[in-house]
Amino acid sequence: IYFYFSLTGCVTCLDHDEHYILTFPNGYGRQLYISNCRSILTVPWIELGGECSISCSKTGYNASIVFHTKPFYGGKKHRITAEIFSPNDKKPFCSIEGEWNGVMYAKYSTGENAVFIDTKKMPTIKKKVRKLEDQDDFESRCLWKDVTYNLKIRDIDAATAAKH
């Protein structure tokens, strides 16, 4: 089973007046089919894969990120590698590798190695979302409310109809 989607976004850091343009990885719905004496379907999972970028026109800093998909045999899920570049530099000053939903390690051009981030230790921050009645017609939760409702009550046919 296979599907994917791709997006581009902008993140603004108000405290620094910086705007970051970023691309997102593809999202894949995966399920392995193994055929031996019997047919076996594994537990499905969502996987990210592909190349992404982040750049700031104000500072000139940019990053190239690769989300690695799990190979058919062996390998790990959720692997990521990245390189961060200073303005006008062709060589990265930092390389990152690890798991995007776990621990990522940084290796700096100075030779220093460090934990870049441990997502398991990050606090969960509650989203702030405007009430549905305060949202415009094409804001995400307003636009998809019927699909979401029907999925919650497990009415797939109604969810599919609402999606169209």
What's a concise summary of this model?
One of its GO terms (molecular function) is sterol binding. The protein has 164 residues and is mainly beta.
Main sheet overview: 9 strands, antiparallel
Number of DSSP helical runs: 3
The count of strands amounts to 11
- Class of the largest domain, according to the CATH hierarchy? Mainly Beta
Q: What is the helical fraction, as a range of percent? A: 10-25%
CATH-level-2 architecture of the largest domain: Beta Barrel
Write down the oligomeric state: single chain
Output the radius of gyration: 20 Å
InterPro entries: OSBP_sf, Oxysterol-bd
GO molecular function, one term: sterol binding
Organism: Picathartes gymnocephalus
Protein name: OSBL9 protein
Report on this model:
There is one protein chain. With 164 residues, this protein is mainly beta. It has two domains: 8-120, Porin, CATH 2.40.160; 126-163, no CATH class. The chain has three helices and eleven strands; from the N terminus they run E-E-E-E-E-E-E-E-E-E-E-H-H-H. Strands 1, 2, 3, 6, 7, 8, 9, 10 and 11 form a nine-stranded antiparallel β-sheet that branches. The protein has a two-stranded antiparallel sheet with strand order 4-5. Strand 1 and strand 2 form a beta hairpin. Helix 2 (145-152) packs antiparallel against helix 3 (156-163). The protein is globular and about 55 Å long. The chain starts with 7 loop residues before the first strand and ends with a helix. This is OSBL9 protein. Pfam families: Oxysterol_BP. One of its GO terms (molecular function) is sterol binding.
